[in-house]
């Protein structure tokens, strides 16, 4: 319900400013198959095109309520993902991969992914350039030194590698849309499946979804109405603590 609260706040801001977005990945699957969260899921994802994402990033710091926080590299200097999170500041969550161990904001969150039109081969190149960052962080024994090295790669990718790849993308005629540069998910999407946006109910509230969400879900999951084997189910959250409201006010 904290995730749903964050989503509703982001939805309010997007609607106010005319920023199109849609439910994605397991959240879209949950809306289509369960009418809300997949019962064992513990994250929530939305997507939008890069230009809309950049607009939203400029608005959220001023428009989110005090108990929520935008998490990007600009707002949390040790954060090294190339997509944003909006966090609940009245909770502390630890993820199983331990990537979040030096981040300032660690509350319950939703993910906001920018999408870009790009050939999959170029997107995979951007994934390879960030793979070294993840390896450094996974294998480090000195977090202080590791974060310095990760941030050097982060800045190099953002300043040099990704702009070069985007120039090459503009020279291509692809109709494939996928996650933004440096985001390690390259499932293809197509504008004809996304627009014009439709709606589905998610936990009793109407939210935007791709126009042909059935085709998109089949690309992502195959026969998505079939439940997965129980032994294949994984979660992100390793531990979760809810903070006293008075303490959260001082964070």
Question: Can you put this structure into words, describing what you see?
Answer:
With 251 residues, this protein is α+β, with helices and mostly antiparallel strands. It has helices spanning 2-17, 25-34, 50-63, 120-139, 143-171, 191-194, 213-221, 245-249, and strands spanning 22-23, 45-49, 68-71, 84-88, 91-95, 109-117, 176-179, 189-190, 198-202, 205-209, 237-242. The chain folds into two domains: 2-116 and 183-249, Beta Polymerase, domain 2; 120-171. 43% of the residues lie in helices and 21% in strands. Strands 1, 2, 3, 4, 6, 7 and 8 form a seven-stranded mixed beta sheet that branches. A two-stranded antiparallel sheet has the order 5-11.
Oligomer state equals single chain
Shape: globular
Topology order in helix (H) and strand (E) letters:
HEHEHEEEEHHEEHEEHEH
Q: What's the main sheet like?
A: 7 strands, mixed
CATH hierarchy: architecture of the largest domain = 2-Layer Sandwich
Distance between the termini: 21 Å
Count up the domains.
Answer: 2
Which key features would you list for this structure?
251 residues; single chain; 7-stranded mixed β-sheet; alpha+beta; 2 domains; Beta Polymerase, domain 2; globular
């Amino acid at each position: 319900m904290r995730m749903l609260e964050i989503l509703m706040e982001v939805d309010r801001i997007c609607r106010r400013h005319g920023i199109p977005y849609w439910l994605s990945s397991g959240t879209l699957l949950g809306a289509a198959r369960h009418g809300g969260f997949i019962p064992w899921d513990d994250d929530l994802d939305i997507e939008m095109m890069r230009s809309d994402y950049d607009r939203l990033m400029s608005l959220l710091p001023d428009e989110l309520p005090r108990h929520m926080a935008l998490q990007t590299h600009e707002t949390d200097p040790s954060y090294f993902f190339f997509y944003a999170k909006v966090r609940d500041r009245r909770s502390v969550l630890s993820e199983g991969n331990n990537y979040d161990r030096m981040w300032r904001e660690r509350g319950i969150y939703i993910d906001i992914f920018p999408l870009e039109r790009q050939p999959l081969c170029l997107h995979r190149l951007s994934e390879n350039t960030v793979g070294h960052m993840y390896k450094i962080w996974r294998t480090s024994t000195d977090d202080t030194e590791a974060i310095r090295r990760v941030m050097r790669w982060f800045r190099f990718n953002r300043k040099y590698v990704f702009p070069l790849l985007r120039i090459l993308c503009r020279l291509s005629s692809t109709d494939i849309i996928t996650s933004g540069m440096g985001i390690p998910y390259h499932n293809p999407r197509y504008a004809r499946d996304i627009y014009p946006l439709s709606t589905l109910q998610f936990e009793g509230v109407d939210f935007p979804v791709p126009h042909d969400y059935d085709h998109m879900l089949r690309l992502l999951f195959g026969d998505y109405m079939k439940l997965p084997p129980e032994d294949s189910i994984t979660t992100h959250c390793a531990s979760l603590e809810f903070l006293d409201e008075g303490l959260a006010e001082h964070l």
